Amino acid sequence: MFWEVTKLRISMILSAIAIVLLGFGLIYGILGYFFGFSNAPIIITASLILVTFFTILQWLFGPALIKIFYHLTEVEPTDPQFGWVYNLVQEVAYYNRISMPKVYIANVPFPNAFAFESPIYGKNMAITMPLLRMLTPEEIKAVVGHELGHLKHKDTELLLAVGLIPTLLYWIGYSLWWGGLLGGGGGRNNNSGTMFLVGIALIAFSFVFNLFVLFLNRMREAYADVNSALTVPNGAKNLQTALAKIVLSTDPDIIERYKKKYGQIGSMLLFSGFHVEENIPSYKVQELVEYWKHIKVSPFADLLSDHPHPAKRIQLLEKLTHTQ
Q: Where is the active site (predicted)?
């Protein structure tokens, strides 16, 4: 178990460093070619300030949009209907040794749980109504342990920072592309055709770097699973069954589809889906968990997802059950 967690931490650190160094190295080389290597840092700094400004605005005021989109209602500890949810989140926050976030109920028709924060809106934790009806209190604790792990690990800030790289690549690529259309710039290598093609190439690279960011995000999600397993009593087992319930709630026949065609469930936030079936038989839950435990997942199964393939998550959690 110790080696699994250590390996995950090292992989996250090295991946973040690699994305930043590779991205800035590529940008510096291209700008140096067109405008001179002495001018490249100035252009990079100006561009970085611009994209950082909009990213900070997103970070600061994004929670306001989340509250509107998810129809969030804040829960107080004295709430006669949902006070127990507040107490449950408070218990998990105590396990994680973090300050108590604001707790919200989301009035949307799909199962989900998510945490978000900003300097203006503070720490927040939201749970949707279908999730509350579908899971046991112990399973909800495990899900909350995952989400509070994101707050504890500052995942929002980290991913926004690393996400500056593909945004910067796109912005500079678009500028070069536009400069090529206008006949080149004032640099020493201002051939408009070359600039146009390099601009297109940089825009393409920005999408490639987004895949790298997704890869890092999947590791952060796995690390949040680890947090739940290590801080919440029986968190690993309960998170396994919670994940299975939510996947099954979106498609009761998913096990059969997994067996017929090697499965992918697409991108999830933590848990997501529509057309929810809330009463999932326990035998189906256990059958899916056992199935996930023993299948071999393709390295490309979750390439375009911001979360790991469910089987990968279950298999990691299974390794952590031995610590509880």
A: 147
In this prediction the pTM is: 0.87
Span 288-297, mean pLDDT? 93
Structure tokens at 62: 């994004």
Tell me how far apart the alpha carbons of residues 238 and 197 are, in angstroms, rounded to a whole number.
52
The phi, psi pair for 310, rounded to 5°, reads -55, -35
Residue tagged active-site, from 74, 76, 91, 147: 147
Alpha helices in the chain (DSSP H): 2-35, 40-69, 83-96, 129-134, 137-152, 155-162, 164-181, 192-231, 235-250, 254-260, 282-294, 310-320
What's 323's DSSP letter? G
Q: Tens of pLDDT along 22-76?
A: 999 999 999 998 888 999 999 999 999 999 999 999 999 999 999 998 999 999 9
CA distances from 169 to 20, 50, 156, 243 (A): 11, 13, 21, 36
Residue 279: the pLDDT is: 78
Residue (of 167, 166, 186) closest to 36 by Cα position:
186
Contact of 103 with 91, CB cutoff 8 Å = no
- Could you give the 3-state DSSP secondary structure of residue 102? strand
Tokens 């189906």 -> residue:
284
Q: Which residue numbers belong to the known binding site for Zn(2+)?
A: 146, 150, 221
Task: List residues forming the annotated binding site.
Answer: 146, 150, 221
147 is catalytic: yes
Contact 58, 160 (CB under 8 A): yes
